[in-house]
Every structure is written in C-alpha cells, then in structure tokens.
Design a protein that fits this description.
It contains 6 helices and no strands. By secondary structure, the protein is mostly helical.
Length: 143
C-alpha cells in the first residue's frame, strides 16, 4: 500500500476522478453511441461507426474498473499500472486530436486541447506522486 501521508489522499482523489470520468464516458459511448457521436468534438471526424464506438466504450469501462481497483486498494503496483495504462490511452488521444483541429473554431479547439491535456497532465502528476516523486526515496515501498 501507499504511505499514510497526505499524498495518499491526493492520489486516491485523483484516481477516483479518473475512474469516475472513465466509467461515465465508457457507459455513455457503449450505451448511447449515437448521442456521443453528436458531440461536436467527435462528429467532425466522420464516418460514424457504431461498432468502433461501442468497442471504445467497453475499453473505457475496462480501464475504469482497473482505476477503481487502484482507488480501493492503493496498492502501489496497481496504482502505477493503472496510471501508466491511462496515459497509454490519453497521450495518443491528445496527439491525434491535436493534429485534427481544423474543423473546430479556435475557442472550441482550445477548450478541447485543455480537456485532453488535463487527461495527460493529471495522471502524469499522480504517477509522479505515487512513484515517490519529490521524496528522495526513489524505489522505496511507499511514495
């Protein structure tokens, strides 16, 4: 388990936020793909593909389950693995959309990039905290 410091609370809260958003997004896309597709940040990249969207929703739910397990246990390896898995998804997502902003207004594109950037920065900070960042302990058991 992680240490009992205030850092645990930050890591747990951040993981909880990521888990909740991942579960909500996954359910939305899995159960209502047409409604998700109508979102302006999504529909500018046609064509609509229900199968792909439902697969994306299911994958999001799976990642949400792993994040929930990390929240519940705060076991160091699980926390680190969940955050790396989240980043393995969110970094390419950000890169792809950063290259396809042309159909969006400047304000919409900026908002979208801020949202997707947060989905990279937050788990990166949580990963740094969970790995013991700033403590000088390196590979110590607790961050």
């Amino acid at each position: 388990m992680l240490s009992t410091s205030g850092r645990d609370g930050l890591v747990r809260a951040g993981l909880g936020f990521l888990a909740a958003t991942q579960l909500l997004l996954g359910l939305w896309v899995l159960l209502l793909p047409e409604l998700f597709w109508k979102w302006p940040w999504v529909s500018h990249l046609p064509p609509y593909n229900e199968h792909l969207l439902r697969d994306f929703g299911g994958a999001g739910l799976g990642l949400g389950v792993v994040l929930c397990a990390a929240v519940a246990t705060l076991e160091r390896r699980l926390v680190l693995t969940a955050l790396v898995a989240y980043l393995a998804s969110s970094v390419p997502h950000l890169v792809f959309h950063a290259q396809h902003l042309a159909p969006l207004s400047a304000a919409s594109g900026a908002g979208f990039m801020a949202l997707l950037g947060t989905a990279v920065v937050l788990p990166a900070v949580l990963l740094w905290l969970a790995a013991g960042g700033g403590t000088g302990r390196g590979n110590a058991e607790a961050p």
